[in-house]
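sorry for the late reply, my laptop died twice this morning and i had to redo everyting from scratch. anyway the thing you sent over, i finally got around to it. pasting the sequence first so we're on the same page, its 375 residues, then the predicted structure underneath. double check i copied it right bc i was rushing
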Amino acid sequence: MPTSDRDPAISAVILAAGMSRRMGTPKQLLRLGEATLLEQALRNVRQSHVREIVLVLGHEAEAIRNQLTLDGMKVVLNPDYAEGMGTSIRAGLAALAPDAQGAFMVLADQPFVRPATFDRLIQEHGRLKPQIVVPMYRGFRGNPVLLDRSVFPELDGLRGDVGCRAIFGNHTDKILKVEVNDPGILLDADSEEDLRKLREGVLPDRADLEIVQGPGAEHRATHKESHEQELVLVSRDRFARTIAGIARLLNFAVTVVDPLLKPEEFPEANQILHTLDFRRLPARGKRHVVVASRGQYDEEAIEQALVAEAAYVSLVANRGRAEEIKRALLARGLSQEKAARLRAPAGLEIGAEGPEEIALSVMAEIIAAMRNSRG
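ok and here's the structure:
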């Protein structure tokens, strides 16, 4: 760990206690080339200016100890790991050196975060003294998050499978977002598909382009209609594919907003926007924005859509998350009038369950909004 007398006392808590339920095997020990996911994550932290590393273990702790070289760091066993991430965050913070000015929360399944990114966040924390520092790539929020010591007491109350984002709403004016040239802040391995992409390399072939044409562009060209209606999706999961299919049947142009998506991975898309900046999109008659990013980029996407006066803006999330986002946007100066235009939870009330029914209810709400706007 490179250090100098001028480096602030910033630590790193490596959260490696999880049960990997979706993967079915301890993903900390899954191999990525010559190293495991966890080994690669630790290597990146060690090469940064982080002064102290606290590794939190739980599930399969003994197997991890036996396979990894853990010299030069504190190893903490979290006996309550089955209760969720909140318990590991608490265990890691409790083990920090008394003079730690802040700490990164590092996910064990993020093997590609560059050492220079840790150093950049440390530098910005030391320069501006925010309470929370969040890395951004092309406008998309990622990990690891750097927390100032002043917020540690709030994290001591975390319960269940809750991360440090739970306290973000209390510090909207003290969060610093730092743009970094590092897609690794967005890459993790939550599933076998994620791991496959990490092994193959996940960046699009034309990652330098902000907008790329998708397979759906050919579909659009075969229609004579002008495509005055556009559906913008900040999502790429099963819900997104379903609603995109419905939108195409209704002759909407479909734009998917995602930093790493390759065109062949989303054949329903007319175009893919690789940067979270709606100003890059070509002008259309009516733009309808649906955000279903599961907390990753929702706040930034909703703010852009509301400021850009999109005809329809909705969030696929629970009411509590919607209110949290509204409070954050109001604190940053968004008007009450604009904030009130956010539809959340998204969709008409039809008792929808599952991605397909939710997609149908959201598309129905868009159609109803279009009809109402025509008077």
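The first strand starts at residue 10 and ends at 16.
thats about all i looked at so far, will dig more tmrw
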